[in-house]
Specification:
- With 145 residues, the protein is mainly alpha-helical.
- It contains six helices and no strands.
- The chain has helices at residues 2-45, 51-56, 64-79, 84-104, 111-130, 132-137.
- Helix 1 (2-45) packs antiparallel against helix 3.
- The chain is elongated and about 50 Å long.
């Protein structure tokens, strides 16, 4: 009897301590969501602000609206728990494209690359912490631990 209640007590303590991890996951996800919403809003509503950067990276400035729509679709999917994995996959693809565009220009380690890398890590880190399905799929430790 004591073994069962001890194991149950350990499980309850583990669940209670992980609630902080879930909260941290939502904080990381919120940062990613806010950054992407801001980026998408600028692309949609003030494309003149980024036209020079678009031209520098080899994209026509008139595609800013399309890029903004893509970003907003990714962030909406990421923000909804049921579609968050799809949103994270699409956002990661977007971040990878941004990293590649600057890499092509020889801007290795540039702020846009580092920010894209950081947002990608934060997106998946936040999703990992807030979604038990992802933690089960990609455990950081073996089941025997």
């Amino acid at each position: 009897m004591w073994a069962k209640s001890g194991a149950l007590g350990d499980k309850m303590a583990e669940n209670a301590s992980f609630r902080g991890g879930v909260a941290l996951g939502w904080v990381l996800s919120a940062i990613v969501i806010l950054a992407l919403v801001a980026d998408g809003a600028v692309d949609l509503f003030a494309p003149a602000l980024i036209s020079a950067q678009m031209e520098e990276t080899g994209f026509p400035a008139n595609l800013a609206t399309v890029v903004g729509l893509i970003i907003l679709v990714c962030v909406i999917l990421y923000a909804i728990p049921r579609t968050a994995v799809l949103g994270a996959i699409l956002a990661t693809g977007f971040f990878g494209g941004a990293i590649c565009a600057h890499f092509r220009l020889g801007e290795i380690g540039s702020p846009p690359q580092l920010i894209s890398l950081l947002l990608g890590v934060m997106a998946w880190g936040g999703l990992y912490l807030r979604d038990e399905r992802i933690r089960r799929l990609l455990p950081l430790r073996s089941v025997d631990d």
